[in-house]
Amino acid sequence: MTSHPIAVFDSGLGGLTVLSALRERLPQEDFFYFADTRFLPYGDRPEAFLRDRGVLIARALVRRGAKALVIACNTATAAAAEAIRAAVDLPVVALEPGVKPAVALTRSGVIGVLATTRTLESERFQRLVGNHANQHRVIAQACPGLAEAIEAEGPDSPRVASLLDTFVAPLAAAAADVVVLGCTHYPWVAAAIAQRMPVGTTLLDTGEPVARQLERLLAAGSLLGGGEGRMTVATSGAPATVIATVDRLFGHKLNIEHWEP
C-alpha cells in the first residue's frame, strides 16, 4: 500500500489549492485528483445527494487503489465526511472552516467565515461554532455563485469582483479581524478579499493544516512515502472544459482524463 496514490476529491478545481499544499509537504507521494464537475456546484445540492455521492466516490477511489483520501471540499465534508469514514477502511482527512484557529487569533472577538450556503447551513458547521466560538461573534457569510464564477470566468473577472464586493462588505462592516476561507476556491481570490478588509486582517486557509494531518495519519499507518511525485487529474465532466479552467487558474495546461466512479 505504501506505493499507492493518495486520492483527493472536490466538486471542481478549488481543491487544487489543497493539492498544492499536499504536494509541497509530501513531495514523494503520488496523487490522484478527482474533480466531480459533472455535479458542480455541490453547494446547491441536497445534503442526502452529497452524502450518497461522497460515499460512491470514496468506494470507487478505494477500488482504484488509494491508500488515503482527502475530501478537499468543505461542502462535501459537511454533508458526507462521517458517512465516508464509515464506508471505507483507509485514512480520511476532511476539510472544515478554521473556526477554532480563528478564535485563537482574533483580537476584536469578531470572526468572518466565507463559505457556501450548504456548508454554513450544515449541522457540522453549527457544531463547530458551538464548540469553539465561545463568546466570540461569528459572521457566517454565504457566497452563492462565487466558486462557480472563479472557475468559469477567472479570479480577476468583473463578475468575481462584484460578488466579492457584496460578500466581503458585511465582514468589514462588523470589524472582523480574522476571515476564514471556508471554500477551497477562495484562496484564488485571497488577495482581493484582503483588499476589501481593513489592513491587518488575517485570512485563514486550511491547505497547510490538512497536509500536516495527512502526514500524521500516513506515518501512524506506516504508509508514508513510496511514490515518485506523480500527479493524475481526472473529471466526471468534460476534460476539455477542465483543461481550459486549469489553464485559467494556474496559467498552464494539465492532462486531464475522464473518470466516472
Quick summary of this structure?
With 261 residues, the protein is α/β, with parallel strands linked by helices.
Any overview of this molecule?
The protein is α/β, with parallel strands linked by helices and 261 residues long. The chain folds into 2 domains: 6-95 and 207-258, Rossmann fold (3-Layer(aba) Sandwich), CATH 3.40.50; 99-204, Rossmann fold. The chain is built from 11 helices and 10 strands. The strands form 2 sheets. Strands 4-3-1-2-9-10 form a 6-stranded parallel β-sheet, with helices on both faces. Strands 6-5-7-8 form a 4-stranded parallel β-sheet, with helices on both faces. Strand 9 (231-235), helix 11 (239-250) and strand 10 (256-258) form a beta-alpha-beta unit. It is globular and about 50 Å long. The chain starts with 5 loop residues before the first strand and ends with a strand.
